[in-house]
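Issue: copy button drops trailing tokens. Both records pasted manually instead:
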Amino acid sequence: MSRGRKKGVNKYGIRQLSSNDDLAAHFLGEALGEEDAALFEAYLDPAAVRQAAKEKETAESVECTRLHEKLRQYPPPQEEIDLHGTTAAEAAARVRFFIIDAVNRGLKTVRIVTGKGLHSQRGAVLRDIVEQGLVELKRTGRILTFIWERQAKTRSGAVVVYLHVKETATV
């Protein structure tokens, strides 16, 4: 243990559970020591919970406002890919290549047409596949965000993708 920590205690001084602990007793408050109980109560204090929720809501609101301001500067879709007739695997590969190529070419906004799945025997498959790929690309920083047209995936057959703009070096 580094920095003089007690065994079974995290860096915040909260006891960590082991496989031998009775979880029911912990959740019912029967196994809490005095220190653990005090920490638990402090974190569950209604005023503290309300304050934390308010701070989170404010931070999310500020971030959302920043994103909307940023998206207003983006042009309408500059290029589009239509995935009608592709399999799920083909669609996933085509979307990934399309996005990476668009980023490399300096595009800012693209549209991906998935269709609504009306003519598919299994229903709308491509929307889920495309969304999965876009979530991963967003998580890894390849795209800024994406928005389903008509504000809902279930009512839409296309998604607009906002790409991160590459900064050009000035010489």
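Record 2 (pasted manually too):
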Amino acid sequence: MRNLNTYNNSSDGADNEERRMKPEIFLPEDYRPAENEPFMNERQLEYFRRKLVVWKEEILKGSQETLVELSNSSRNIPDIADRASEETDRALELRTRDRQRKLIAKIDAALRRIESGEFGYCEVTGERISLKRLDARPIATMTLQAQEAHERNERVHRDD
């Protein structure tokens, strides 16, 4: 993952104007949110915002590379087994990119929660989501306990 301090404030129009008015928050390269500082203070929010933006940029870059590869691989392969293997690889790559497209939507939603002040709080209970969980999965919207309960409930209703 790229250095979080390399993020520049080039987002989309209205957000970009609003960010220009805010002073840039300096984060040391080794900064990690800590439990002994105020929860979701400016530094923590900036850390997670940068982490999300870098993640999104990496996904978009990978998508561009996939498009180039797919457009270059449209060749006629005479061997049936090789052709089947290439089609399987292509289908897998497209499925992966579709999952990443959905992930981008979750990243965008997390960025909106940062802007609205809702980031870091469980959408079910309103409790704080642990910093360790957010660092591992910054798109998390529920505490670990709420997520586990949600998944148990899904399993119960899926079997119906």
